From TrEMBL:
Family assignment from sequence similarity: Belongs to the Rab3-GAP regulatory subunit family.
Main subcellular location: cytoplasm
Compartments, record wording: Cytoplasm
Name by which UniProt lists this protein: RAB3 GTPase activating non-catalytic protein subunit 2
Start-end of Acidic residues biased regions: 51-62
Molecular function GO terms recorded: GTPase activator activity
A GO CC term attached to the entry: cytoplasm
Any Pfam family hit: RAB3GAP2_C
Alphabetical keyword list: Cytoplasm, GTPase activation
Domain Rab3GAP regulatory subunit C-terminal: 716-1310
Domain Rab3-GAP regulatory subunit N-terminal: 72-318, 326-456
Organism per entry: Chrysolophus pictus
Family annotation (InterPro entries): Rab3GAP2, RAB3GAP2_C, RAB3GAP_N
């Protein structure tokens, strides 16, 4: 292994982030500057702006602007979370938060992509800019956590001195001003388990650098405060309350003295001096008489870079912590430093073990510091503007091998893992990334990466862990990464541990280099194999490390070029790994087989005459009638499958040598197939057998070659069946391929160990069981059916030969002609043939489609159906077949009565009689007759194959359940629930209908209905769309349809309960071929197990549903549905419909009766109003009542009145009055006859007639009308003046129609009635007006 630059993520749209953060670097900004003749900014003009004579050419200018756009990341502040899940890019006041998501790349592979999760402006104070950013993942407190952080906090430092903390979504958690100077740098330290007992355990902390101060915040305090802030923000967002003040942070502030400038720092952590160092320091400060403490003091060490000194070392004794108030800093003088007056430090990066640090300066140097001793121990030159980071690699104990010569402790696998550190340097001026072994090691890796990248090294992991909680954690964190804005990729560096080894341990590194060289040599394209063998021989003999010798077997797929045993001498063979010799020998064997198969495939044989239908029928042992039936089924399947199958280009049957060697492996004399994907098995099988199946290659020679090579017949049978079952389309186009398969299967069956010699006809052969299993699992039903016929034929052929041998031993003269060879395998084949034929017919039905040119198709209906196999049907339970057809019915969306029509045709022998049923009523859209006829034929065929599983009631039950399940997924699709009720009503057996309806109610309806009821009762009217979506999960239109369906469902349930007493429960049978089905219980079986309902309770619930539907249907206001019922009635709602509840009985409260009467009258008025608007617009009832089917609301209101203890006559009279009020007198006359108390109604209609006459005489105020009004009797005049025509809904009624109304009133008013004389005067007035 060598150093590698491994990509682990990509950016979805980095240009959008660039345009947001750096708008002046947009692609169009440079062009705009050129068009205007001068740069938009003095900085954009470049150095050439100072000298017009040196203006670049247009091409150079374009490339320059492009480079400037690529350098935009250098101006930004970046931070990537160590867990790779969040990246922050900030520039000036703006920031972009990028979150990681796993998505498919263009090549179809899953990869991590960074997409913009939040973007915006972070600045609060005027003029402040972002100066530093950290992404700190916080550990989860849950015991079930697997090492992923709970969430990630973004810490941002500003030039105003503020430090603000944000969530991943940009929500501000905490903002604190710790110092009034600008924040220069933020750094974090998280908990690490000490590697050795003597190492001091370091606490977590966040350090903030200012120009003359350092502030450190305790990690535990920060972790608790951030959690509390996040919880408070979440509560505030949920409740709208004000945010509660979080607990204060514990921090320390040190004022750094005796330093000119500071630009970066590193917090080394707590260190304890050794006793010698303690005495040396004390004597230097206090002289030889200085006193020392018994225990060395603990100090926090800080290293700064800047100028005067170039590097400063500070040691701070523990002091009291402060809380978040702007307090003065504690003075801290520099202890010592590295003085270099001309050198200015730029960055410092502390190593993971806190012993080394890399410092960059303005001279282009990278200096390695020994932090413990305060010495510069190494320097690299020529790295101007460099960025540095560290990689710590742990030795893998499993790779450590004990060598024969070395018996040192480090060679023992029992020792703990060793740790190596590597320094990574990115030189942007040269566009190179280098990896160096520390402290004095060589360069171990270098990569050309471009000049626009950024190297990110966080130096911390997950905050919130300690010595207890970190034991079980395995956090997936990265150490270093490279961001490339040009390619949009994020990469990390992988360095193997052995690069840190030196002296004799470097043999492994040398061996790895030889392995790489050997790999490149073997991949080289050259025809001189002798030269390759000579060089490879030298390389192999030079490899010494035992583990590397073993690795040679997996170096390359091209190792077969080496004929190891032939070009190594006997003495040299001892130095070569035996496994390598065997490996090459096996590859040569496979190569020889490849050459033989390729040669056979290239030799085309003379094609025989295509077998006739009679020949195929005899070959498959079928009668002529059965063979023609098989052909018909295959043609139908082929026709319907062609409409749905996706067409792919023909696969190339040529298999490359490399893939051939990867697919196979040798074990002694046998050849085995490796674990492969299905498509790889098909490719290998195609290489062996496809030419033979097409009749273009010799089947006998191919089988002989494969058997001689060491293939077992079971492996060959598996490859053959995989090929046959996957190439169904090609097989159906080549009828002669069936006879080729017969020949191939016969030859394979005759191989040794194919069929056990002990097999007899009364036992099951594993050979044939393997073939049957493949057919059962296959989803290509036509190919499976043909292969099953071939398998059955070959089995019968072998049984006949075995039987003949037995019969030859029987005494001559016995009657053997009437004997029939029976076999258990033959019976299994017959059963499988019946199952495959059924599955083929069912699959053909599922492939058929109805044209939907105008019908709107839901996304749920457009999802493709899965393909069938015998295995799926056997595991689908007794209702699996009906459930499959129900899914197909749902996808097609046709009327339920189409299923009844197909059943009717199936049961009727007389075709003319069946044609009497009209077909156009069964389809909602004008569909192509051919499609309908095809579907009806296929349905009839399916009914014949499955008389029990597809019995019409069973099918309707499954269709009903499928529609309601799909409606539950998307409640906006109200048509699904309506269609479910339609299928429910088509169920003939009341027991099944009762059970399905009750299951629908309990599973899908009652919970939503309860939510809708309480919502409508709360708002006191038909709720708006927003409330419906919030509480019920659907729109107001969908909820209207839902309530109507609830009413229909309960009505159907009531009717089924009554009808179930008059019929027997059905007996559920299963076809003989499908008796062995296993799986979930059928929906129909569950329906028959349901308890009987309590009829009064369902009727009570039905009334509520009807009330709710009326409120939504007519948008009624000031109606609380639950106010129509007393406490008993309210408590009985939404209870189990099979339970007995306490229902209202006896006289009702007059107040409740009054509310009920007002509600019913509102419903009648709204229904009449809608009826009149329908007449006015001349619209059909279906357009205005899309969820109703001839629902008569006035009649329904009368029925409700009977249940609600309201006089029916009151509702009927109000209906009549409303009709006359709207001027619909012809309907009013019909409704008049239904009223019992016609005298009261007549007196009410008299007022209506007076209002009409008052409008005609007083409102219009014509001269003739006023003269006529003056001639009327005074009593009538006074009465007419008291009338208010505005109460009428329609005043434009002919006077002749009003005359008929007055005559109808006179007929039903007795002469002794108080208004009889007034009615007579009214007749005279009307007649006078009409004359």
């Amino acid at each position: 292994m060598s150093c590698a630059l491994v990509p682990f993520g990509r950016f979805q749209d980095l240009e959008a982030a660039r345009d947001f953060l750096c708008p002046h670097r947009r692609q169009g900004s440079a062009a705009a500057g050129r068009e205007s003749g001068k740069p938009t900014n003095w900085e954009d003009g470049g150095w050439g702006a100072w000298d017009e004579a040196e203006l670049p050419e247009p091409e150079e200018e374009e490339s320059t602007s492009k480079n400037q756009r690529n350098y935009w990341l250098q101006d930004c502040v970046l931070s990537l979370s160590p867990t790779n899940d969040l990246m922050v890019i900030a520039n000036e006041q703006k920031a972009v938060f990028l979150v990681s998501k796993w998505k498919q790349s263009d090549k179809g592979k899953e990869e991590m992509q960074y997409a913009v999760g939040w973007s915006g402006c972070l600045s609060v104070e005027e003029g402040e800019c972002v100066s530093s950013v950290l992404c700190i993942p916080l550990a989860s407190q849950k015991r079930s956590s697997t090492g992923r952080p709970d969430w990630t906090c973004i810490v941002v430092g500003f030039t105003s001195g503020y430090v603000r903390f944000y969530t991943e979504s940009g929500v501000l958690l905490l903002a604190q001003l710790l110092n009034e100077d600008p924040v220069l740098q933020l750094k974090c330290r998280t908990y690490e388990i000490p590697r050795h007992p003597g190492v001091t355990e370091q606490n977590e902390e966040l350090s903030i650098l200012y120009p003359a101060a350092i502030v450190t915040i305790d990690g535990f305090s920060l972790f608790q405060s951030l959690r509390a802030c996040r919880n408070q923000v979440a509560r505030a967002a949920a409740s709208g309350n004000e945010n509660v003040q979080p607990p204060p942070l514990a921090y320390k502030k040190w004022g750094l003295q005796d330093v000119d400038t500071i630009v970066d720092h590193a917090s080394v952590g707590i260190m304890t001096l050794s006793p010698f160092d303690q005495m040396k320091t004390a004597s230097n400060i206090g002289g030889y008489n200085a006193a020392i403490k018994n225990s060395p003091p603990a100090m926090s060490q800080y290293v700064t870079v800047g100028s005067n000194p170039f590097t400063g070392f500070f040691f701070a004794l523990e002091v009291c912590t402060s809380w978040l108030t702007l307090e003065p800093a504690t003075p801290l003088a520099v202890r010592f430093g590295i003085p270099d007056s001309r050198r200015h430090g730029e960055k410092i990066c502390l190593s993971p073990c806190n012993t080394l640090a890399a410092v960059t300066d303005d001279f282009g140097r990278v200096i390695l510091l020994d932090v413990t001793r305060g010495l510069a121990i190494r320097m690299w030159k020529g790295y101007r503007d460099a960025e540095v980071g560290w990689i710590q690699t742990v030795e893998d104990l499993h790779e450590r091998e004990t060598e024969k010569i070395d018996y040192s402790p480090f060679g023992n696998a029992q020792c703990p893992s060793r740790v190596a550190q590597f320094l990574v340097i990115y030189a942007p001026r040269r566009g190179i990334l280098e990896v160096w072994s520390t402290q004095q090691g060589p360069r171990v890796g270098a990569f050309n990466v471009g000049k626009h990248c950024r190297l990110l090294y966080p130096g911390y992991k997950i905050m919130g862990l300690n010595n207890v909680t970190s034991q079980g954690w395995q956090p997936q964190t990265y150490q270093i990464c490279l961001v490339d804005p040009v390619s949009g990729s994020v990469k990390t560096v992988h360095v193997p541990f052995h690069f840190a080894l030196s002296d004799k341990k470097s043999e492994r590194a040398k061996d790895m280099h030889l392995v790489k060289k050997l790999n490149a040599l073997l991949k080289a394209k050259t025809s001189d194999l002798d030269l390759i063998e000579a060089e490879a021989k030298e390389l192999i003999l030079d490899i010494k490390y035992p583990a590397t010798k073993k690795q040679l077997q997996s170096v390359s797929g091209h190792m077969f070029k080496l004929r190891c045993r032939y070009f190594f001498s006997s003495s040299e063979l001892e130095c070569v790994d035996e496994g390598l010799l065997q490996f090459c020998a096996n590859k040569l064997k496979l190569l020889h087989l490849y050459e033989i198969v390729s040669k056979l495939n290239s030799q085309s044989i003379q094609e025989d005459t295509t077998p006739s239908d009679n020949d195929l029928a005899k070959l498959l042992r079928l009668e002529e009638k059965d063979f023609h039936r098989l052909q018909t089924l295959l043609e139908k399947y082929k026709k319907e499958n062609a409409q749905t199958a996706v067409q792919f280009a023909d696969e190339d049957d040529v298999l490359s040598v490399k893939m051939f060697l990867e697919y196979l492996e040798c074990e002694k004399d046998a050849i085995n197939v490796k674990n492969m994907e299905d498509n790889e098995c098909v490719t290998l099988g195609s290489f062996f057998f496809w030419k033979c199946l097409c009749g273009e290659s010799s089947t006998e020679e191919m089988c002989h070659a494969l058997e001689s090579a060491g293939f077992s017949p079971q492996i060959l049978l598996s490859l053959l069946l995989n090929l046959w079952l996957s190439r169904e389309k090609d097989i159906l186009e080549k009828p002669d391929s069936t006879s080729c398969l017969h020949t191939m299967l016969s030859l394979l069956s005759k191989m040794k160990v194919a069929i056990d010699e002990s097999w007899d006809t009364q036992s099951v052969s594993p050979w044939w069981q393997q073939m049957r299993t493949a057919c059962i699992q296959s989803e290509n039903n036509a190919a499976a059916l043909l292969s099953a016929y071939v398998g059955h034929s070959v089995t019968a052929q072998i049984i006949d030969s075995v039987t003949e041998k037995k019969f030859s031993q029987i005494v001559v003269g016995s009657d053997t002609e009437s004997w029939e060879a029976l076999s258990l395998d033959a019976e299994y084949w017959k059963l499988l043939l019946k199952q495959l034929e059924d599955c083929l017919i069912l699959q053909t039905l599922l492939h058929s489609k109805v044209s939907k040119k105008t019908m709107r198709v839901s996304s749920l209906q457009s999802e493709p159906l899965g393909r069938l196999s015998v295995k799926k049907l056997l595991e689908g339970g007794k209702g699996g077949i009906a459930d499959t057809v129900a899914k197909w019915v749902f996808k097609q969306g046709f009327n339920p009565l189409v299923l009844n029509l197909a059943q009717h045709r199936n049961n009727t022998d007389n075709t003319e009689e069946s044609e009497e049923m009209p077909t156009n009523i069964f389809l909602e859209e004008p569909e192509i007759d051919e499609d309908l006829e095809t579907i009806l034929e296929l349905l009839q065929l399916a009914y014949q194959q499955f008389p029990c599983s597809l019995e019409v009631d069973v099918l309707h039950a499954h269709c009903c359940w499928e529609y309601v399940v799909q409606w539950n997924k998307d409640p906006e699709e109200a048509c699904f629930l309506i269609r479910s009720i339609d299928h429910l009503r088509c169920i003939i057996n009341a027991h099944v209908q009762h059970g399905i309806a009750l299951m629908m109610w309990n599973t899908f309806i009652v919970k939503r209905l309860s939510s809708a009821t309480y919502l409508m009762d709360k708002v006191g009217k038909a709720p708006k769309d927003r409330l419906c979506r919030r509480d019920v999960g659907m729109s107001d239109t969908a909820m209207t349809a839902f309530l109507g369906c609830c009413s229909d469902l309960l009505q159907t349930l009531l009717e089924a309960d009554v009808s179930s007493d008059e019929m027997q429960a059905p007996v559920l049978d299963t076809e003989d071929a499908w008796m062995s089905v296993e799986g979930p219980v059928s929906i129909v079986e569950l329906a028959l197990e349901q308890k009987r309902i309590h009829y009064p309770l369902v009727e009570h619930q039905f009334v509520l549903c009807t009330v709710l539907y009326a409120i939504m249907r007519f948008s009624l206001k000031s109606v609380k549905p639950l106010s129509l019922f007393d406490s008993k009635g309210k408590n009985a709602f939404f209870k189990d419909l099979t339970s007995i509840q306490l229902l209202p009985s006896g006289d009702m409260d007059p107040n409740v009766l009054s509310i009920r009467q007002q509600f019913l009258l509102k419903v009648v008025s709204a229904a009449v109003q809608m009826l009149c608007s329908q007449k006015a617009k001349e619209a059909s009832e279906e357009e205005l009542f899309p969820f109703e089917k001839a629902r008569n609301w006035p009649t329904l209101a009368v029925d409700l009145a009977q249940y609600l203890q309201i006089s029916e006559d009151v509702v009927k009279m109000h209906y009549v009055c409303e009709l006359y009020s709207y001027g619909m007198d012809h309907l009013g006359e019909e409704a008049f006859l239904q009223v019992s108390d016609k005298e009261v109604l007549a007196s009410q209609l008299l007022i209506l007639a007076g209002q009409r006459l008052a409008f005609a005489l007083l409102q219009i105020q014509t001269k003739e009308g006023m003269e006529l009004f003056a001639r009327l009797p005074p009593t009538l005049c006074t009465w007419l003046k008291a009338m208010d025509p505005q109460e009428l809904q329609n005043v434009q009624v002919p006077i002749a129609t009003t005359a008929k109304l007055v005559n109808r009133v006179i007929e039903h008013l007795p002469e002794n009635h108080g208004q009889y004389s007034l009615a007579l005067n009214l007749i005279e007035a009307v007649e006078a007006i009409s004359s």
